[in-house]
Amino acid sequence: MPMPPSPSMSPREQTFGWMTRPYELLARCRQEVGDVFTIDFRGHGQYVLFSDPEHIHQILTGDPAVFHAANGLLEPFLGAHSLLLLEEERHKRERRLMMPHFSRRQIHGWGDQIEEVADRMIDGWRVGEEMPMRETAQSVALGLIDRLVFGLDGEANHDRHDALHRCFDEILSHPHFNIALIGQFGERLAGSPAWQQLQESLAEMDRLVREEIAERRATGRRGDDIMSLLMDAEYEDGESLSDDELRDELVTLLATGHETTATSLAWAVHWVWSHPPVLERLRAELATLGPDASPSQIAELDYLQSVVLETLRINPVVPIIARELQEPVQIAGYELPAGVTVAPVIYLLHRREDLYDEPGQFRPSRFLERDYKHNEFMPFGGGVRRCLGMHLALYELQILLARIATRVELRLCDEEEVRPVRRMVTIAPSGGVRFEVERVGA
C-alpha cells in the first residue's frame, strides 16, 4: 500500500521550510494534500503527519513499545538519560520517580517565589524603555529555574549559574544549532569554526551542571528545590539517580523550562495587548480579587486561564509530537511500515474549523464556552509522554501575565508583523515582541 500523499515541494524545500517557517509549511501541506500527508526531511527520512483528532488519539494512546519517541536528535544536547529520550520500562520508571515533584500541590507551594521573581523583573523596568519581551521573559524564566530547580535565592550572585545561563543562550541562539538538528545538514558543518564553537558551549554546559552535582554530593546541601528532591528520590528497588541521570534530567528541565515559558509569555503579551477588549476584561477580573490575593487565588481565575490556554492554542510552542514506529501499524487506512515516523501536528489540530470557530482569531472566551477533549487541545502533548511540567508551566504563565497586566502599562512597538520563527525545537515570535513601558505601578 502506498504512503500518504506528499506536497508538491521537493524534499529540499520541505526541509528548509520546516527549519525556517514550520507553521507556513504545515498549513500549505494541509491545504494542498489534506489531513494526512508525508513529508521527506533530508537526513531523517519520511514523516507522516496527522491532524485528525481520532488519528492523533490512536498514536498517543497506542502501545509505547510500538510508538517510540522520535527525540534522538536531542541526545547530544539533553543526554541519553533524559526523560524525553527514554523508552518503555525505563521511561515509565523515571517518570514515576519524578512525577510527585510536579504535582499541583507541590507547584502551588512555589507561588510566592514565582510572584517574587515576576515583581523583580517589573521593578527593573523603566518608563520609556523599549525591550523584547521574549528575551526579558527568558531572564525571568532562568531566575525561576534557579529558584525552583536549584534552590538559589533570587539575590544570590552565583557565578556558576551566571555562566550556565550564558551557555544556554549561546547554544540556543547559535546560528547552526537548528541546522544541527537536521542530520545531513549537521554532519556537513562538522569541523567548521562555528561548529567547534557550538561543541565547546555544549561541553561547558555539561561541566557546569556536573560541578553543581558534585558540590551538592560533597556538601549534602538540600532544600525544597527540585534538584534536592531528585537527589533524595529512590526508585522502587531503593536505587537513586546516578550522576549521569541527574545531569541529563537537570539539563532537560533547564532547556524545556525556560525556553517554553519565555516564548509562551511573549506570545501572550503580543496577543493580549493587541486586543484591548481582552486586556480590559482580564484586568477587570484581576481587580475582583484585591491587592492581597494569593498566587493560588489568581491562578483560579477563569478568564486568566482562558487567555493562557488560547495563547497555547493559537501558538503552540512545539508544533508536532513525533513517534517512530517499531512495527507496522494501520492509521487512517494506511499500512505504515516499521521505521516510519508518525507525528500528530498540534498546530494544525488547533486550527481545525470543525473544532474551533474562526481558528485564526485570538478569542479566549472559547474556553469558557466549551470543554475540549484531550485529543482536541494538547499544547503539552498527550498519552504517557505528556509534558511532566504542564501544571508548572501553566501556573508560571498565569502568575507572570497577571503581574504584568496588574502593574504595568505598556505599548507594543514592533514595526514589522510578528510572525512565528523557529528557535531550537520551539516556535517563537519574530523580534521577540518589542514593547515600551509607559507606567509601572506598585
UniProtKB/TrEMBL annotation:
Domain of life where this protein originates: Bacteria
Listed PROSITE patterns: CYTOCHROME_P450 (PS00086)
UniProtKB keywords: Heme, Iron, Metal-binding, Monooxygenase, Oxidoreductase
Record has Transmembrane as a keyword: no
Annotated binding of heme, by residue: 387
InterPro entries the record matches: Cyt_P450 (IPR001128), Cyt_P450_CS (IPR017972), Cyt_P450_E_grp-I (IPR002401), Cyt_P450_sf (IPR036396), Cytochrome_P450_monoxygenase (IPR050121)
Protein name in UniProt: Cytochrome P450
Phylogenetic classification of the source organism: Bacteria, Deltaproteobacteria, Bradymonadales, Bradymonadaceae, Persicimonas
